[in-house]
Amino acid sequence: MKWKRTGGMGIQLAAAVFWMLPLITSSTGDIRHHGASRARGWRAGTQQTVETAANNSVSNITAQLGGTAYLHCLVGHLSERGQVSWIRKRDWHILSSGKFTYTNDERFQVLHGEGSEDWTLQIKFVQKRDNGTYECQVSTRTGIVSHYVRLQIVVPEAFILGSGEHHVDLGSVIHLICIVEKSPTPPQYVFWYHNDRMINYDATRGGITVETEPGARTQSRLTVRGATLKDSGNYTCSASNTEPASIHVFVSEGSNKMAAILRRNTSAIHGITTSATCLLLLGTALMHYGLR
Ligand SMILES: *[C@@H]1O[C@H](CO)[C@@H](O)[C@H](O)[C@H]1NC(C)=O
Ligand SMILES: *[C@@H]1O[C@H](CO)[C@@H](O)[C@H](O)[C@H]1NC(C)=O
Ligand SMILES: *[C@@H]1O[C@H](CO)[C@@H](O)[C@H](O)[C@H]1NC(C)=O
Ligand SMILES: *[C@@H]1O[C@H](CO)[C@@H](O)[C@H](O)[C@H]1NC(C)=O
């Protein structure tokens, strides 16, 4: 396997996409909200007009299945009695209050540095069921102020370009491309299998190359030169963070297009009526579909 970009291997699985929505509690206790562009100005100390009404504000974040999600809640200067709680809306579970976590699920943790204005809910090894809305509830002197974070879990997917099967002539090149998408953190590896055998490093067969370009949309190219009848079969692309994807490769002796024609016509096969040849074709087609 050849990783074209050298940085690709060091990428942490824990990386996650997150959104910062700065919230400030004013001295009167209401949370105020800077727009995204103003946030930078605020951080740089150039205070500009502050947008009001951040109570019930909503932000969206995306995290990859298996990765780590950081749900930020920036509250300014809390009054002495101020308390920050995280609540999961799905089941109204109070996950944390202050720095304490009220769940047996050890994937949840509140990150808060001394003197920091950020109360981040960290969720490790995110699962599909973590998808949903979380409320950061801040009790202030004037009442409860809420900030909602919508966490969306993205599930990386792999697929091989082309339809479910691929036809090549004897002696030609089998060329397959596997795409891994919806994967903000690229997969750590992409392995190719011919039936049950991993062929990335296959030295006995020879003429096989795998080139993988990791990215948000990872592309892995398999090249098998000098196709023989033995190279027919099931080819599977298996990435570290997805379900595998498969395609069937048929290596045939030049003009043997029968299989291809047969399959192309299966949707119209009920239209075929009389001759014995046609019945034979129908039988073969049904067997093919029955076996799938
Ligand atoms: C969050 O996502 C919802 C729909 O999923 C959308 O309507 C809303 O505008 C998004 N909010 C932000 C701040 O991007
Ligand atoms: C997550 O929830 C949103 C709606 O809140 C839904 O549109 C989306 O399909 C869900 N994703 C998963 C992976 O369940
Ligand atoms: C924030 O909004 C909620 C719901 O609309 C309301 O009950 C609460 O009093 C508001 N908090 C403040 C401090 O105004
Ligand atoms: C191909 O092989 C993979 C892995 O062995 C298997 O999961 C998949 O079902 C097979 N696909 C077909 C079409 O036979």
From TrEMBL:
CDD domains associated with the record: Ig
Domain of life of the organism encoding this protein: Eukaryota
InterPro entries linked to this entry: Ig-like_dom, Ig-like_dom_sf, Ig-like_fold, Ig_sub, Ig_sub2, Ig_V-set, Zig-8
Membrane-spanning segments: 268-291
Any single Gene Ontology cellular-component annotation: neuron projection membrane
Alphabetized UniProt keyword annotations: Membrane, Transmembrane, Transmembrane helix
Residue ranges annotated for the Ig-like domain, each copy included: 22-146, 156-248
BP terms from Gene Ontology: synapse organization
Record-given protein name: Ig-like domain-containing protein
Organism, as annotated: Bombyx mori (Silk moth)
